[in-house]
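Re: the 121-residue chain
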Amino acid sequence: MTEKHRPIAGFRIVRPSVARSRMSGNRLVWPAEMRRLLEAFLTNELRRSLARTSAAEPAAQSTREPTPPLPRKVFNVGRIDPSKCTLPIISEAEAKAIGGRETFMHFGLDPDLYSATCDTL
């Protein structure tokens, strides 16, 4: 050991016995092994799919009949009054004033201040 790297008393520094090949992590897969891995994967996915389906629809699996579609829900809204379906017509200046006052109120300011400062905004 060098002056900087002295061995610690009681410990022995051992070199790796065999240098590992770079290909050991990326070794080739034999066709038979690939087939076995694919079969295991597909079997596992099929089991998961069947378990999920049987847990979600236990009655549908037991009867094996097509379920009828659910009836449409119709709500009775009554007679619609056309006079209430139209929005009031307001001018652009009035819309800006209403929006400005609501914005001032949103930020906690006095809405009457908007009418005093609307020319500068």
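Residues 34 and 118 are 76 Å apart (CA to CA).
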